[in-house]
Amino acid sequence: GLGIPAEPLFRSRDLMEEPELALRLIDTSEMRGVADVNYANYMRAQIYYGSPTMEDLDKARDYCLRVLNNQNPVVDSLQRIKIISLLVSVFQKTPEKYQDAVRYAIKGAEMAHKANRLMEEAEFYFNAGTMMERLQQGSGIAYMNSSLELYRKAARNSIAPLPMFSSNLGQMARIYAEEKKYADAISLLEERLLVIERIEKEYSTAPAGWIDQQRAYTYPVMAYCLYMTGDKERAQRMAAAFEQTQS
């Protein structure tokens, strides 16, 4: 495997706030054999991807690929999924790399499927679909729909997928609204409101204000789509509901 210590060596906040120090610590840990080469390179990739002061996407990509290509030791499938996920995030930051993001997201989805990691599979497919949409309108819908189906399945037995599911329903509804598929957008937003309701009931740890914020993202898009389909009365009700989240 990645030789990951039982306790994480670094918290990701430390990595991002003091990247130079974090890189030195990683070098030392690798030298002393506390962290194996794959774990060390994964941490380096995270720093170069996420640090506000040291962002270097080429380095982040190279460190991810080093881990994926390393034959000694080879990383296990769950760590591989993690690294492909980071690699997709790296590619998503650069428009000319969207094609690569799609390719790796589909690869990641296939690996997650084999490993029976439903939520990771759903997320990879959603990412693939979003990137395809940016490349060509309408081309990513099938992948995004597959992703939402997987979230629905995962949400039957667990509340863990709900926040991400809510966010992705909203994102896909916006894409439908942009493509003037207002009825499709409305049905996803209605589903999103039900998911938010479930989060409110079942998630004791939802951060303060998060629920209101989720509704505040949903109501205006819903009001717009309803208005565009001619349902002006319900559109007004949604606009009023939005006003309430702001008070």
Describe, in plain words, how this protein is organized in 3D.
The protein has helices at residues 12-17, 19-31, 37-50, 57-69, 77-92, 98-114, 118-135, 141-157, 162-178, 182-202, 210-228, 232-246. By secondary structure, the chain is mainly alpha-helical. The chain contains twelve helices and no strands. The longest helix has 21 residues, at 182-202. The chain is elongated, with a radius of gyration of 21 Å.
List keywords for this structure.
disordered N terminus; 12 helices; elongated; 247 residues; 75% helix; mainly alpha
Summarize the structure.
The protein has 247 residues and is mostly helical. The chain is 75% helix and 0% strand.
Write the SSE topology.
Elements: H1 12-17, H2 19-31, H3 37-50, H4 57-69, H5 77-92, H6 98-114, H7 118-135, H8 141-157, H9 162-178, H10 182-202, H11 210-228, H12 232-246
Give the overall pLDDT as a whole number: 92
Biggest sheet statistics: none
Fraction of residues in H or I helices = over 70%
**Helix vs. strand class:** mainly alpha
Terminal residue distance: 51 Å
Low-confidence stretches: 1-8
